[in-house]
């Protein structure tokens, strides 16, 4: 049986093209009391179909499961043969690896990605996070312009390809995390407005605000929760990463985050939010990305201090983020021009996902340049050591583990040239405000921008990439052996010649961790040392954060040491 939710329509026709005959049929649908239109016709796998609303052109099903001809074509009846079983294992202890299917391999498909899973497992990765795989316009996209939230783009291999990938990962005891976007629809191929109030007006900056609390919003929430149950209960996805939850217009008594968490169990939820609000970890009991630790590490090592990096860049800030999780936990943010964040009071550190880079932190740079394109091997490994020896849940971005030489730039392939031009102009304005030179911004719609971002796997065995790969592999083995995901931070020591102190005591919050005593023999240079209590050992991590050697530490420029006592 075919059905579609269309509360604003008077008449809906099912336009059906059976796989057996290919002959198009138009069948009037019956309106039910709940604003769903039904057609008592068998929905046979492989049949193509769409809907005409009040005499409109034929549009695909907004709740389509497959779009073999792209986002503007007819939908196809697709159903899973056998629901997959979930691993149901906890997030704590995982090492996540974020990848974009289209640029992870030259072929850019799920099947090609399967061929690399053994190599990821050998490095120490335990969970694969796929950037969004819902249908989008054209052949190239990051995925955040997706429409039809229950479908999988055929560009990567469609739903069958995703199932093969999940099965292959599970066969290797690798979890799979899917990045999903419920805060907006992409601008290309979004026909939800033809059928009903899926959006509520206003803009998130990427698209119209999704209707989560206006009239008829119960059905929109149900659509999202259906997708959540599909991915977790039918496909066997082990975790969902929720894109930019701060952009959800969700102020009701029952949060969508709670509803998603409950619908996904026992799969885990990771929220991306820039609010620095521990309500996600302490209230909703989900995980969240933590940009503050990224910013603190990146600025200390790279020296960059523009835009949202402006409040970071000192060793004291770095030390504080390890002690208090957020730097902006009630402090003034110069980038935002206001006080930002709230203190973490009951930290379960594994609920905070940390990283040296992500698709955002690389791709939202003007040229899409990776840290590995600007830093030495020792600097790259210094950043990795701080993340991979911590009790936080670490995440790698594809190619990071060998210091990939390829950029990861922002790219699109909208089927509307005006959208491509608007995207390019918008990126230029955004980067100009952030202080980047617009001349450094590649054209997002150019195919070479996409092609240049494809990983070069052959370079993994070449110098200096092989040295970075050995460093990451050794670090992750050390992390696994000493169960650092269960460790507790006992002490932070640091020193930074010439840095002005920026700490202050906030009401009800412990003051920033102080540096070592000025009379100590190590009171020179620029360095940090973290001491963790792991289940079976005491772990010390020391990093020289300077271009000069530190004789007292016995470390050369940007060198680090980690081990047990």
From TrEMBL:
<dbReference type="InterPro" id="IPR006047">
    <property type="entry name" value="GH13_cat_dom"/>
</dbReference>
<dbReference type="InterPro" id="IPR044901">
    <property type="entry name" value="Trehalose_TreZ_E-set_sf"/>
</dbReference>
<feature type="site" description="Transition state stabilizer">
    <location>
        <position position="360"/>
    </location>
</feature>
<feature type="active site" description="Proton donor">
    <location>
        <position position="272"/>
    </location>
</feature>
<protein>
    <recommendedName>
        <fullName>Malto-oligosyltrehalose trehalohydrolase</fullName>
        <ecNumber>3.2.1.141</ecNumber>
    </recommendedName>
</protein>
<dbReference type="InterPro" id="IPR017853">
    <property type="entry name" value="GH"/>
</dbReference>
<dbReference type="GO" id="GO:0005992">
    <property type="term" value="P:trehalose biosynthetic process"/>
</dbReference>
<dbReference type="GO" id="GO:0005737">
    <property type="term" value="C:cytoplasm"/>
</dbReference>
<keyword id="KW-0378">Hydrolase</keyword>
<dbReference type="Pfam" id="PF00128">
    <property type="entry name" value="Alpha-amylase"/>
</dbReference>
<dbReference type="GO" id="GO:0033942">
    <property type="term" value="F:4-alpha-D-(1-&gt;4)-alpha-D-glucanotrehalose trehalohydrolase activity"/>
</dbReference>
<keyword id="KW-0326">Glycosidase</keyword>
<dbReference type="InterPro" id="IPR012768">
    <property type="entry name" value="Trehalose_TreZ"/>
</dbReference>
<dbReference type="InterPro" id="IPR004193">
    <property type="entry name" value="Glyco_hydro_13_N"/>
</dbReference>
<feature type="binding site">
    <location>
        <begin position="291"/>
        <end position="295"/>
    </location>
    <ligand>
        <name>substrate</name>
    </ligand>
</feature>
<comment type="pathway">
    <text>Glycan biosynthesis; trehalose biosynthesis.</text>
</comment>
<feature type="domain" description="Glycosyl hydrolase family 13 catalytic">
    <location>
        <begin position="98"/>
        <end position="433"/>
    </location>
</feature>
<feature type="binding site">
    <location>
        <begin position="241"/>
        <end position="246"/>
    </location>
    <ligand>
        <name>substrate</name>
    </ligand>
</feature>
<dbReference type="Pfam" id="PF02922">
    <property type="entry name" value="CBM_48"/>
</dbReference>
<comment type="similarity">
    <text>Belongs to the glycosyl hydrolase 13 family.</text>
</comment>
<dbReference type="InterPro" id="IPR013783">
    <property type="entry name" value="Ig-like_fold"/>
</dbReference>
<keyword id="KW-0963">Cytoplasm</keyword>
<feature type="active site" description="Nucleophile">
    <location>
        <position position="243"/>
    </location>
</feature>
<feature type="binding site">
    <location>
        <begin position="359"/>
        <end position="364"/>
    </location>
    <ligand>
        <name>substrate</name>
    </ligand>
</feature>
<keyword id="KW-0119">Carbohydrate metabolism</keyword>
<dbReference type="InterPro" id="IPR014756">
    <property type="entry name" value="Ig_E-set"/>
</dbReference>
């Amino acid at each position: 049986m075919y059905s579609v939710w269309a509360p604003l329509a008077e008449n809906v026709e099912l336009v059906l093209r059976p796989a057996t005959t290919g002959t198009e049929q138009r069948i009037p649908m019956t309106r039910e009391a709940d604003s769903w239109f039904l057609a008592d016709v068998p929905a046979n796998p492989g049949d193509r179909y769409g809907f005409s609303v009040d005499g409109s052109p034929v549009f695909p099903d907004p709740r389509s499961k497959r779009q073999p001809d792209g986002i503007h074509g007819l939908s196809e009846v697709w159903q899973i043969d056998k629901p997959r079983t979930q691993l149901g294992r906890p997030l704590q202890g995982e090492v996540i690896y974020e990848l974009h299917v289209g640029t992870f391999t030259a072929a850019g498909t799920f099947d090609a990605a399967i061929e690399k899973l053994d190599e990821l497992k050998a490095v120490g990765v335990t969970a694969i996070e796929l950037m969004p795989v819902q249908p989008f316009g054209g052949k190239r996209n990051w995925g955040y312009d997706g429409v039809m939230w229950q479908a999988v783009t055929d560009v990567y291999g469609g739903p069958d390809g995703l199932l093969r990938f999940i099965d292959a990962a599970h066969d290797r005891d690798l979890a799979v995390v899917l990045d999903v976007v419920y805060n907006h629809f992409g601008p290309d191929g979004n026909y939800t407005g033809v059928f009903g109030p899926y959006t509520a007006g206003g803009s998130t900056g990427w698209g119209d605000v999704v209707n989560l609390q206006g009239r008829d919003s119960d059905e929109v929430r149900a659509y999202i929760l259906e997708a959540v149950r599909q991915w977790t209960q039918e496909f066997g996805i082990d975790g969902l990463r929720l894109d930019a939850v701060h952009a959800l217009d969700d102020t009701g008594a029952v949060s969508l985050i709670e509803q998603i968490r409950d619908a996904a169990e026992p799969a885990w939820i990771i929220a991306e939010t820039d609010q620095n609000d521990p309500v996600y970890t302490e209230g909703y009991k989900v995980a969240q990305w933590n940009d503050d630790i990224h910013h603190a590490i990146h600025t200390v090592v790279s020296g960059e201090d523009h835009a949202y990096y402006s409040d970071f860049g000192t060793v004291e800030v770095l030390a504080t983020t390890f002690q208090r999780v957020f730097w902006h936990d009630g402090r003034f943010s110069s980038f935002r021009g206001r006080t930002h964040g709230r203190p973490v009071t009951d930290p379960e550190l594994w609920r905070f996902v940390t990283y040296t880079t992500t698709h955002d932190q690389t791709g939202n740079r003007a040229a899409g340049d990776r840290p590995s394109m600007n830093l030495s091997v020792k600097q790259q490994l210094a950043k990795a050591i701080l993340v991979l020896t911590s009790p936080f849940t670490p995440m790698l971005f594809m190619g990071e583990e060998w210091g990939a030489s390829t950029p990861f730039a922002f790219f699109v392939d909208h089927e509307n040239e005006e959208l491509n031009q608007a995207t390019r102009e918008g990126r230029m304005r955004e980067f100009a405000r952030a202080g980047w030179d617009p001349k450094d911004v590649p054209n997002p719609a150019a195919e070479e921008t996409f092609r240049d971002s494809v990983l070069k796997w052959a370079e993994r065995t070449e110098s200096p990439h092989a040295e970075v790969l050995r460093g990451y592999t050794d670090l992750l083995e050390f992390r696994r052996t000493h169960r650092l995901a269960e460790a507790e931070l006992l002490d932070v020591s640091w020193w930074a010649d010439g840095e002005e102190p920026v700490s202050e005591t906030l009401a009800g919050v412990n003051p920033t961790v102080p540096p070592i005593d000025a009379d100590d023999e190590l009171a020179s240079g620029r360095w940090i040392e973290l001491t963790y209590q792991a289940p079976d050992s005491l772990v010390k991590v020391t990093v020289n954060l300077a271009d000069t050697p530190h004789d007292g530490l016995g470390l050369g420029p940007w060198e680090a040491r980690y081990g047990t006592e």
